[in-house]
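Project standup — Tuesday

K.O.: blocked on the structure for the chain from last sprint. Re-posting the sequence here as requested.
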Amino acid sequence: MTLFEELKWRGLIKDTAGDDLEKVINSLDATFYWGTDPTADSLHIGHYSSLITVKRLAKAGHHPILLVGGATGLIGDPRPTAEREIISFEAVQKNFQGIKKQVESIFNGNVEVVNNYDWTKDINILEFLREVGKYINVNYMLNKDIIQRRLDTGITFAEFAYTLLQGYDFLHLYETRNCIMQVEGSDQWGNITTGIDLINKKLGKNAYAFTMPLILDSNGEKFGKSAGNALWLDKNKTSSYELYQYLINSDDSKVEEYLKVFTFLTPEEIMEVMRKHQEKPEDRVAQKTLAKEFITDLHGEEEYLKALRISEALFSGDIKSLKEEDIHDAFNSLPSYEVNTDKNIIDLLVEAGVCSSKREAREFVGNNSISINGDKINDLDYVISKDNAIGSFTIIRKGKKKYFVIKHV
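H.V.: unblocked you, prediction finished:
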């Protein structure tokens, strides 16, 4: 199986540009780029399907350039519904540094990270119009899908011109680094083709590109989105345990797709995993393999083992075996209630919002439905204090699955 055939098998190629694209991909020596705007100081899981494809190409012998848009981030790629909020120059540059550090870590330093602000900051408007705007027809821009969708509600000139900026990036990298191919998510197809058109008209050269389909969950939502909140690649924002829980709960209908996209397992290994999974789906072999491969590649084996240990401790109820840092990782997404003195269990259950009333609190405690740090508590006079906490945390479980965090300050 050639590299191009494997990418197709994994479902990683949607749109393509360039008659000889398959030959270019199989040649294993092309310089290509992938780009993103620094809208935050960390990338999220939605970016990772693209990043791991970049990594796959690099492992095969291609030469990646990762562009973080310090210039384009000041404008913002048009969204389908409304204009993006403008980010300050200082925030964009801070975000650039955060993403640069993150990307270099993911690629173990074996990648060139560039900032398009470096080659656009000194260009004046007249020069840009002559060198770029002159070659791109307005009717061509109006036919771009993302621009078409905004015409009824309105689109600013800044957003309208965004595709020219990204097209210029491809032209610049083509001229200065012999970068002949761009690889992006499918939502960037319109901007990619602007760059290819610009290279063809201005230089008389051919460029190449392919896009990857957006990865969706079983509900049709973007992969890595949970109630509108991104799962970040930064483990200090999204712990490895939280990531593990997301992956281990992947729907059976999607897990084979995720194994193909997000792991470096061979096609034969993936087919074997799926065979075992289909024999006993209740064992969740495919989901466990996905979580192990994904987290180990992103954060390292130690972080995966840590996430597994936390998961097993919580499943068994052995919370006391966890360290304070494990508690932080496991319950990072839950709001905490702070106390600075000893509290009777009934009073605290109501104050922290675990129960709606003292009557309800007494019922839950009396029915053995309240656990404190893994121990069932049925004593109405039990006192929760820092002395019996795990570090500075006390974990309350109501019923089988609802956890609450008490922080002793």
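K.O.: great, moving the ticket to review. The two ends are 59 Å apart (CA to CA). The chain has 19 helices and 15 strands.
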